## 1
Amino acid sequence: MNERAGLDRRQFLKVAGGVVAVVGGLAWAGRVLEPLPAGAVPGAPDLYLGGTDGWMYLPPTPAIPPFHPDVLAPSPLTTYIFGFRNLTGMDDTQKANQKNKAQHSAPLFWVNQFDPAHPVDFTVAVTNLGLALRPDLFDAHTLHWHGFRNVIPFFDGEPSGSVAVRSGREFTYVYRPREPGTYMYHCHVEDTEHVHMGMTGLVFVRPLQDGNTSYYPSGRYLYNDGDGSTGYDREFAMFLSEVWAEAHWADAHIQLPEWSDYRADFSLLNGRVYPDTIAPNGSVDAFNPVHDADGDLVPVPGFEHLKYQPHSSLVTCNAGERVALRFSNLGFREQAMTVAGIRLRVVGRDATLMRGRNGTDTSYQTDTLNIGPGESYDVVFTAPAHQGPGDYDTYMLYNRNYTRSNNLAPSGFGGAATEIRVYASGVTAQAHPNDWGL
Amino acid sequence: MRAPRRATTVAALVTASGLAALSIAPAAADTPPRIGIVCTTGTAGVGDHPVFDLTTTTGYISLPDGNTAFMWGYSSRFDSFQHPGPVLCANEGDTVTVILHNTLPEAASIVFPGQADVLANGTPARPQLNGSGVMTSLTNTASANGGTVTYSFVATAPGTYLYESGTNPEKQVRMGLFGALIVRPAVGADHAYNRPDSQFTPSEEFMVLLSEIDPFQHQAVEQGLSFNMNNYHPRYWLINGRGFPDSIADNYASWLPTQPYGSLASVLPYDATSHPYPGLARYLNVGTEDFPFHPHGNNGLVIGRDGRPLESPTGQDLSFEKFAINIGPGQTWDVLFKWYDAEGYDPVTNPVPVTVPSLANQEIGVFYSGSPYLGSTQTMPPGIQTLNQCGEYYIISHNHALFQLTSWGTNMTGPITYMRINPPTPNNCG
């Protein structure tokens, strides 16, 4: 490829004129896009992720002997994981230092829809830092953007159909995200293991309609709806995953689990279980990452046990605001995510606006989202009036399968659960998704 | 096409590579296609009155971990055992007759979910009750050891359906007494429904029949022992009766003599003039829980479920795109799909906007051509072999309940298949 490096490929491009072909009138009324040039620039990627192993925290009691908590875990952590870390902007030493410092869930990131008028590629470099606890494994890693349409195998991250990243190497994935909505990403190498071990996160695409305040005052939307029906004031990503303690223990102890025995001991929301889900965010703005001098994550004071689980799930909003929740599920079981006391409107599923091919509105209201493995749901709700007493009213968001909103304890909430706090006023604008604005 | 005769066609059809070669040309009469749905269109009867003879048989299937499972099955006419049952294809409006010949040591039957006014031996098919008024079968049975029953119905609604045993189904369906029924619409066999927007490319019609196996249940049946369903726990999950990598072998692959149906999807890229219509995947779930099937790289447009198009009473389109086809037990979903070369990457005129690392620095997949570009190949480093033929793309589809991608301990098997995207013709795939 080096011989092509100096080539200005714009002069070679076949620009087809942005034809939207609906052939035969009815053959395929879905989106059809023509190839367009993009202003890709070799150099620093937009994001730089590292794949490695590490440890995270789940409530140590009740124990699941001998698997949980893992006796090898450095206190206060409990559970061996594989995961991604955001290495963007780090020097080589800092990057190398992040071996054995994986996080879960993987860094949340987002990107603007590819704009043919201002074509810019979005690039994510992935390096493989190796597995500190399992040097006997020489597993490669990849980045699979789950749901990305019409991808070529080279950028799909499915290792049999293309290539994977060996330890010490790196690979840059290039995306032109042409379809807004909520997606997820994960390593696809031996993906039963690497997905379950935690190399999973949420990614979403902002629509081109963003910035247009004529449909909704905030000018922020989930989709190119043309009518403001997906407009919102605040957005929160809700990434669902699971931990089968035996499988995590097995990887730490050079064992293999029997996957057909799978069970979800812990159900996680953004990589944590309730009440940790309502603890503050760590460094969660993927494009303004915060790390210490060594490159390590910086825990929120008082929440040192969540150092490698930086994503909060607490929803904060003012009464009357429209709130968007983006759900993706990379657990292995269906999740029944319920909000008590607030109706949700499902406006998107699997990065698709809820419209039939002739524009028929297929959105619907519900209390409970049954989200299968590999599915995503985009919902909006309007925060009800503040009732008090107190600064905020609390509504619960939880897995209605109560064995999944539980930390195996005889009583008490846990698992995939969080709170929605509705204030009368005073919650400030979000600096980034999942920002509390407090 | 008449019911295929396996013995006479296998030798001519199967390559030894284990990877299906391209076959775009329509198969000749009486020759089942190597890839795509193998229709059985009636073993007797005339015109719009097809007759299917189905015989219950026993046999074994091969599983990816090297194990075998004892199975029951429906076979066409009086052929030897196959799994799953033959894909019955009929046309809208046909009066379909299915004669069940039962060789099993217990009564067996067939129910046709989605079909109305089914007759059994000329009278309305009914749940069978014993002397105490307790149901013993969901429908009329063929008695054990040689009994026969004749079902008939008018195939009024086009779509994809299951047929399966209605007798002790927790045992007989699990043992393999199931298959697919396809009813083609009056408007033409290249449509899923009578809606114009359901047209598809006939050479790109595929079946995704998802099932599961608890080996202890099968062992108990083989040994004539009872099996406590409280202990039911699947250890294998299959697609079209096979687990990966068998799943991508040709239809009627010689090394899978009782599992005739492959699930490799072989397609050409969307092209406005030369290839305007999508492919059609007919999903069926005969398992006990939802199977979230995930086709990479192309969203499925779900246009029908359970043999009914997704439309409102006034004809408004209610179809929806999905990247996870989360299909429930007993459901069928009809899904249009295509792959579109969205960026048109080309090694000369439009290279991928990234420095391509040396192959020696990458972990190379067994289906990779060595090149990012459709239709291009690159010499592999020494010691690396590829199954790629002509720079075609392979994009995976798999169940995303990932713990089910196993065969009782052999990981990365089970319900996995691939979409093979062939370079635009002419190409070097032959």
## 2
Amino acid sequence: MRWRRARFVAALFSLAIMTTSRAALAQTILLQGGKVIPVVGETIEKGDVLIKNGFIEAVAEKVDAPFDATVVDCTDKVIFPGMIDVHTWRGMDQPNESPPLTPFLNVYDAIDPSQLFFEDSLRDGVLSIHITPGDDTVIGGMSRVVHPIGLTPAEMTTAPDIALKLSVTPKNGFDRMRQMATFREAFRKLDEDMKALAEKAYEDKLRKEDKDLDVTPEEAQKRGLELLKPEDTPEKDRNLLMLTQGRLRAFVHCDKAMDVAAGIRLAKEHGFFDQTVFVLGTEAFKAADALKAAGRPVVLSAELVHNETNSLTGEESETFVPKVIDDAGLHFALLRNWGSAMGERYLWYQAARCVREGVSRDHALKAITLWPAEMVGLGHRLGSLEIGKDANVVVLTGDPLDLQSWVEKAYVQGIQVYEQTEDIRLKRLFAAPGDEQGPSTRAEGEATTEDNHEIHKNEYKDKDANPDERPKRERREGRRPRGDRRRRPRGGDPE
Amino acid sequence: MHRRIQHLGLATVAALWAMSNAGLAMAGDDRTPATYAVRAKRIYTMADGDTWFVDNGLMLVRDGKIAAIGADIVPPAYTKIIDLGEAVIAPGFVLANSTIVPPHSAPDSVGPQYRAIDAFNPYLTYDRVIAGGVTTAYLNPGNHRLVSGQGAVVKLGAEGDAAILRDDGDLVINLGERAFDPPSIQHWLVPPSSDNVIRPSDVQRPNSRMGQLLELSEWFDGALAGPALTLDDDDAIADDALRDLLRRKVPLRIVADRAIDIEEGLDFANQQRHHCILTGGREIMNVADAVKSTGAAIVLEFPANPRSLFGDLGPGPDVIEDDLEVPAVLRDAMIAVAPPAGAPHADLLYYAGALKAAGLSQRNALAAITSNAARILGVDDRVGQLVEGRDADFVVLGDDPFTRATRVTKVFVDGRLEFDGASLIEGTRVLVRAGHVWMGDHWQSPGAVYVENGRVRSAGPTASSAPFTQVIDAGDDAYVTPGFIDARGHLGLEGDRSAAGADVSIASILYNALPEFHRVAEAGVTTVMTSAYRPGGEGARIAAIHTAGENPDELVVRETAGVLISVRGADAKSVEGRLKGLLGKAKKYDDAWKKYEKELAEYQSKDKKTPETKPAEEEKKKDDNVVVEKPKEDPLTGTWEGEVAGAPLPEPQKFTAKLKLDGDKVSGSFATFFGGGEEIEVKGTFKDKHLDIELELDVPIGKPSVTADLDKPDHMIGQFKIGSRFSFDLEADRTERAVPEIKIKRRRKKKDTEGPQAPPKDASLEPYRALFAGEIAMVVEVEEHRAIEAAIGVLTGEFKVPFVLLNANEANQVAETIVRAKTGVIVRTNPNWRVDDREYVQAPDLSMSGIPIAYQSDAEDGARHLPLRAMYDIQYGLDPTAALSALTGDAARLLKMENDVGYFRPGCRGDFLIFNGPPLAPGSRLERVFVNGKEVLP
């Protein structure tokens, strides 16, 4: 893994918008004197977090600084694990392929590292993103977990080949009968392909031994199956086969409550139930009983409130979905609502809403950190500040559920990847009118070579300057940067 | 910004509130106990054998299943018994074909792999379908392809897996035009390669009748022959699915309308040795024998959508004629009925009725939506009959299923109440039907009366009624009459025998909910014309009150329903004098009011016209209101012009102020945007170059004011405030020092005294205004015949007011005069007395003379014996019909109450009595009493 980190550093240098050369080189970092919210374990009101070689080395009230440590003063700050977006198609150039059955595809081929989406995620403290194919397929492709920094998809990858995307909710132009028939068709084809392969493998074996076929085709298929090596499987079938063997996770999209039972049945029938995460639409909370019985974790729709009108009486009802799911005792993950102009674009805002509606603070925080990490099988690496985990850490200006908090520093695998004071776009957004960096002539968010020059100049200037004497920046309180929406990926929203 | 935050706060509160309510509703849902019994007038069990219904039966429900059913069931102790009274219970209706699931979207002409159950949403409530009594439904995968897939059977309103009765009901085969010309299929090429070349899209069959059976046979034979190695992948899926279905011998649902398709389809099913469910069948008439011989089950599709009946067939040669007749040979076949494609699913009861009209027996017609339909779908082990062990899915009907206007009022699924019509209506709705109904003046046999929210809405031989009406079928032998009227009583006075004048509203001093009321009501007397025992000199008011009711509106029929005046014992001369004196005075009072009302109406109509017709006058008026004042010169006095600016004003607004200083008092006017540029009076102070004035304008958020300082001569700067909410910057210069001419439009409040003046009210004479208007009647207590004549003379001659005679001992002597005066007599309380040593019975005698009569109790709860009194008179020769009239219609008519009580006319109070025989006949019993449409229970 280390080699990747080296390339990572190179990437950071060239990505001018948010790098700090000092931090990037540091291998040992001590975040000192901040309020540590480790998600797992007690909050430490004033504590230290030691990062070494990309991992969390220590979390305690007082950690002695090793001789080579870069000490970062976090007084009055909050140290929090990097947040996780557990289901998004953003970051790809297009969410869906058009054929309904594409288990052989991989999001790797579609990730566009230059998208502002990644920069936004970084700024918002989302340090792990599980990119999955969109919802508009029957069986989509393979997903992966990336961190929002790096020049190529390979550099960005935290963990490859996490899960296969399945959608019980009909894709465009399909209905449920056709969707389910297509599923059956896919698994049946897989079954037949494998049988044919197995039979052939057995026959080949006999041929090598100069024997004639001595058993029925069914028996030959059975015997041949044991002879098959993974590389014998055609690429077309490999992912689906791994899924049915329980070696791959499944993210099963169930937009409506009625899809939940079908999704559970599908997963159980084909042997991947224990690897399944259900990705729910807002209305799907009505199947809470079925989900509770299934006991599998769920990803909730970014739209957290369900509204409904009774057709006979005209009565309107409103349900806050995470509360229902939480009451059912399920692990859930929250998503960002990119369609909203409000704070729903921020994971912590979503978590804060949950707390307002009666979900415990512990669960709300886990729903944006630890639980999504567990859903993608990275619970041992991400999602909390525990010794030995990846050093994906954000330093916030205040409590993670306080809407006025924001990300001041972010570390991915022990490397500082974000420093709010040097966020070019924020600078430009908040610059006072007349400031030389102010939004005078150029469009917002357009970083030019001159700007980059400017940054470097500032960097060198800042290096010697006393941090306390830095010119105060004009800030509008409570405002967060707006993402640049001009460069949305093509293909529209898959929902 | 501030406001927006407030809104967000409100929205949050609203959201929380809505959620807490939703939570409550959810928690309160399981109200039906696990074990309970229902009792109903009749339970249609639809059981096999001879008895298919139970009268006055009891059904015991335990844990969603029927534990026992029958007429002599004894429920376990402490079991809750729901008595449904007049209602009828039937099994939950079974929809043998539906479009609840939309047709699948795949292009395959033969797609046995498509399963309707995949598209079923158990989380929808299906309230509208359930409201029609449907508890079980067949899901059709579509009627658009030759083989459209596998049907399924589900229960609506059930939860989770309990909702699915069968997930592979049958294989749906559609014959005829609907499945012709399927689209061609373009296969996906993933990944495309030289081995996996692009093929032209596959063209599919059938395109005509020639192709459909060929295609079917090929597929069936292919599937039965075993997996073919040559088939491409896509067809193999269908092939596998078909083979599986054929091996399991699932029924074939042949959907066909034309005779030829029906025959071919049945033949095909026969060849394949599959059970066949024929669906559609619009030309079944022509092939009835063939259908009969195959023994196929039939799901008839009703040929028209009852909610849009008027589709033209058109001139084409291919149209299928509507034919509702079911051929005689098929009338005992296994028939179910289903709505046509596109029609709502809730009208199943209507279709069953149509099936009865088409020739089926009542039993078979009901079976077509219950037991037979369940059997056709293969779910008769769970639903379709109300027998022990089946699911407790049942509907409660307002009346027998095939009588008119029968509606589903409640629906239970798995013993749970899933639909309650009562929750959709407000108030009471009662329809009473009987062999004989007394309309107040004539008999209607048979007749019906519909009462909604306490008032009669329709009555006659039959009556319209709104949905979810409580139907009371009293039977052919029953008699229904309007509630009886006591034409003069004192109910509610509680023995208070003091005199009361015409100024006392008797209704306002009444007590209610007393046992006395109930006693009277139980006897069938529903209305009492209550008045004081002794009327005052100017008479007494009569109130028409109900003997049962829950609120003043129900209890008081009319607060002032008459004027009672007593001239008993006076001779003719003084009777005339008294009546003339009283009525003359009342007439004068009435005239004064009439004149006032006329003037008022004129004034008001004139008032409305003013704006268009008299602008000049208005102008003049304005000038009248202008005060011209001329003050002296000083630092402030003069005309000031300037601007008011600041948020939320979009742009600075000009203003002109004309101010006059007097000592340190400031007066004048202020004209700006606020107030539409009009000059508004200002008042305030000016001290040490500081101006502080208020505008005399009523603004809800506070008076506008100006505070400003003279920073230099002829220039002021300050603020213009409206209440404490808005504050604008103000700056002005003095443009003129001359004492301004201040034109202030003084806003004069419109005085109440403007227009015509109302004459003073006289409570004693108030009821007489209604009397002269003909709305109420005068009850005149008079005895001697000359006095009667004198009274009639005054009341018909000079004054012409409605009246009725009270007691009128000697009325028989002036019968003709009374008849001519078109009035009647409230007969004495003692029915007979001796006149010239001979027995005289008043009621029959007057009645025979053509004088309408009414009865009085002259007592409080003594009114309970009013029917006995009438029976007594009948014994002495009174025409029973006249006696009934005397208690109902005649009493109401004489007292001018015919639009309130005594008749079954629309608008009348819904008071009615149900007798088991002719009313007032010995041996007849009053069985039920309703007041305001609500039953008076013992």
